[in-house]
Design goal:
The chain has about 140 residues and is α+β, with helices and mostly antiparallel strands. Helix content is about 20%, strand content about 20%.
Length: about 140
């Protein structure tokens, strides 16, 4: 594993809550996580409420779509940007050394943006529901 990939793996391992693994035969009491079952107290749900009420608006820019506006509204600093060439995004066909995936983050939210991508990827970790994933169409 190359050093940048290892560093990213260590960073992700340190920031994502651990998941208990179950033996293959012991899945009878597992529950499917329902992301939409109740209202979540989270930065993304708070932003969704503000957008729905008209209290906040996303501004579209030709070069970056809603990225800059979304980062501002989620209080994610542009200076947190990291560029990755990992093909783990579902937008992997657009990711290469000339157009890397940009990841931005703060303590609560991760934002993934790919040049010419159709969506912006957003994730957050909810204390009870775990990782929550969203997309914002551009």
């Amino acid at each position: 594993m190359k050093r940048p990939t290892l560093c990213l793996a260590v960073l992700l391992a340190a920031t994502v809550p651990s998941v208990a693994l179950r033996a293959a035969g012991d899945l009878s009491d597992c529950h499917v996580r329902d992301q939409a079952s109740d209202t979540l107290a989270s930065p993304v749900s708070a932003l969704q409420s503000k957008l729905a009420s008209g209290e906040a608006n996303l501004q579209f820019e030709p070069a970056h779509g809603y990225l800059v506006s979304l980062l501002r509204l989620l209080h994610v600093p542009v200076s947190s940007q990291g560029l990755v060439f990992s093909k783990t995004s579902f937008q992997r066909q657009l990711i290469n050394p000339q157009t890397p995936r940009a990841l931005y983050f703060n303590d609560n939210v991760y934002v993934g943006w790919v040049p010419k991508g159709e969506v912006i990827e957003v994730s957050e970790v909810h204390p009870k529901k775990g990782a929550m994933f969203y997309t914002l169409s551009q």
